[in-house]
Amino acid sequence: MPFKLIIGAGWPFELACEAWRSARPDLQVQPIEVTQDQAYAFDLSFLDRYSPEDAGAFAAFDNRFLNFKRLELMALIKSRGFRLEPLISPRAHVAETARIGENCFIDDGSVVGPRAELQYNCFVGAGVIIGMDARIAHSAWIERGAVLGGGTRIGSHTTLGSGVIVADGVDIGRCCVVEIPGTYRRDIPAKTFLNPDFDEPLRTIDHGSS
Amino acid sequence: MRSNMDHRYYLSEEAYRREQELLFGRLWQFLTLKPLVSKHNAFVTRRLCGIPVVVQNFQGEIHAFQNVCLHRQQALQWESEGRRPLVCRYHAWGYNARGEAENIPFCEDIYRFSDARRKELRLREYPLEIIGNVIFVNFSPDPIPIGEQFDTGFLESLRSSSEAYDDEVMLTTFHAQFNWKLAYENLRDPNHPRFVHPQSLAKAVTFLPRIDEAMSAEAKTLSTSDAPLQREAAMALMRRFSWGGPDAPLDDAPGYEWHRRVERWGSADWYYNWLAFPNLHIASATGGYSFIVEHHVPVAPGRTDLLVHWVTAKKSARYAWSPAVLYSHMVGARTVLAEDIKVMEMVQAALHERAPAPSPGDYEAMNMLVDKWYVDLMEGRFAI
Question: Measuring CA to CA, how many Å separate B28 from each of B34, B43, B129, B181?
């Protein structure tokens, strides 16, 4: 039976292990929990014991640091030659013409519409609806129950929280966090953070060239 | 010791208006950071002393004007930060670096202003002082030299440290329900972190209250004296209210990966603080790798808008995840800010006509000196 190495930590790791077992009973799931050292670096030396010829892999980590840590983990695994197929729950509905990138996770009950595109390393929580022709750039993180209208554009490393509805055709820039539930009918510039713990949005100004 | 600070200075509309006129209307006050207006047509708008202000870059020149079109009193720039020419969206009047209405569409055909009238059409400009990357504005018709407000050592420390700021700045505003002065009384109180921030700030750094015997004696003498401060002595005293530099050693200085990607200011693992009187606080909780710039803007006797800017030291080279660095640290800073805001809002809520006067201890001598200075200013015993 071929191996599937699930590499990560925390609840996304546990969720991914369960989901892979459910989605692919033909695979032998091998959970490998990783830790970070004092400098927050991953140690993947344990992968020396495995050959990319014998095993596929999947990086499962939470969205800390705007999902850059999960991307770092994925990149480290990929650099060792492992394939990182996406994980699509058998209880999700993904249109045949949709494109799903490496190391994406589509959880139970999600719907991905025709010609929608998710680049690599995206997380799509349970019950998310992604409309036709939506474009989700890499390392986006979409919490359970969010709704993305047709033709929406979501930038890389952007997080959309539960209860967020993005109206048809709206662009959300890269490295945004939208965690205040509501319907968003206007574009949101890159590096804008709508966090309910703050009185006002956090915005980022960068006119420089450093 | 007993403080001379009366509850009216925190609660009364009349005192608030007087404070705006006698203190904020006369002193240099923080307007914004230079990286926010570093490129042609980049602008920032703020409302200070009740005046809407726009500070804008015109081909490298930075000027501040009243943000009100001379035609129909429309705000010229609408957003708090942005980049566009200084052109009114209502009837497209455009203004140049001197504040002149350089372009009035269809001027000759429909406005029919005389040449003399055209020359009069000039936005009200406010003087600026730029210290490193920190921009100060003054609303007085006769501004004091900035050197009369801050001593040269402080200005040099502010210039040197702020020149280390990166161009990428994250900012937000907290709407707090307390008088702005409470924030600075709190910031001058090193005894509060262990009680207010036991699980946050106080875990990373130990602030120790110290007693300066000479200052304590001076504060006792001044605060019990009926003799008013003379202007020269008052201005010299005021310069001592602003200071900056290493404040306390970091117990366990963190070594984040991004530290290697920025040009650290200094090399000491210390918590740095700068207080620029009256209402600017800057701190570096990372020993010069990053800075938080807090501007407490009074908006009513019991309301303060706290504008928070978070910036790293200059990047050696761009890296993709710098927004994650800014965001994660701003979220961390919010924990400490929210703890302070909560305490100060409860102090404000408890203030009333019969509230007992504060009873500061010897370690609070600087607050006592500020109190004496402030009361004498507000009671008209000297003027800035």
Answer: 16, 20, 8, 17
Q: Which chain A residues have a beta carbon less than 8 Å from that of B36? A: 205, 207
User: Looking at chain A, which residue has its C-alpha nearest residue B318?
Assistant: A210
> Can you say whether the dihedral through the CA atoms of B244, B249, B254, B256 is positive or negative?
positive
Please name the residues in contact with A205: beta carbons below 8 A apart, sequence gap of 6 or more: B35, B36, B81, B168, B169, B171
What would the two tokens of residue A206 be?
């960068």
User: Is B100 in contact with B93 (CB distance < 8 Å)?
Assistant: no
Q: Distance between CA B292 and CA B274 in Å, rounded? A: 10
Secondary structure of residue B12 in the 3-state scheme: coil
Phi, psi of B61 (to 5 degrees): -90, 135
Residues A41-91 pLDDT 10s? 899 999 999 999 989 999 999 999 999 999 999 999 999 999 999 999 999
pLDDT for res A210? 42
> Which residue, B42, B49, B125, B23, is CA-closest to B81?
B42
Instruction: Give CA–CA dist B245/B266, Å, rounded.
Output: 11
CA A74 to chain centre: 11
Residues 6+ apart with CB under 8 A from B63: B55, B56, B97, B98, B99, B125, B128
Beta strands across the sheet bearing B134-137: B29-33, B134-137, B128-131
Task: Enter the pTM of the model.
Answer: 0.95
Name residues of chain B where pLDDT drops below 50.
none
Cβ(B149)–Cβ(B27) below 8 Å: yes
Rounded Cα distance, B75 and B342, in Å: 34
Give alpha helix (H) positions in A8-150.
10-23, 68-79
Give me the helix-helix angle, B365-378 and B231-239, nearest 10°.
Answer: 140
Residue closest to B123 by CA, chosen among B44, B70, B84, B72: B70
- Are the beta carbons of B324 and A41 separated by less than 8 Å? no
Greatest Cα-to-Cα distance within chain B, rounded to the nearest angstrom: 74
B173 and A CB contact within 8 Å = yes
- Which amino acid, B361? G
Q: Name the nearest CA neighbour of B18 among B355, B264, B378, B277.
A: B378
pLDDT higher than threshold 70 for residue A1: no
The sign one gets for the Cα dihedral A182, A188, A192, A198 is negative
For the record, the structure tokens of B2 come out as: 């007993």
The structure tokens 């009926």 sit at B226
Neighbours of B343 (CB within 10 A): 17
- Give the Cα-Cα-Cα angle B37, B292, B272 (nearest 5 degrees): 125
> Quick one: residue A132, left, alpha or beta (phi over 0 = left, psi -120 to 50 = alpha)?
beta
Option in A68, A177, A199 nearest B321 (CB): A68
- Report the distance separating Cα B88 and Cα B75, nearest Å: 7
Express each pLDDT in A104-123 by its tens digit.
999 999 999 999 999 999 99
B211, B362 Cβ separation under 8 angstroms:
yes
Instruction: Please tell me the distance in Å from B91's CA to the nearest CA on chain A.
Output: 25
Q: Is A88 in a helix, a strand, or coil?
A: strand
In chain A, which residue's Cα lies nearest the Cα of B170? A204
Question: B258: nearest CA in chain A?
Answer: A39
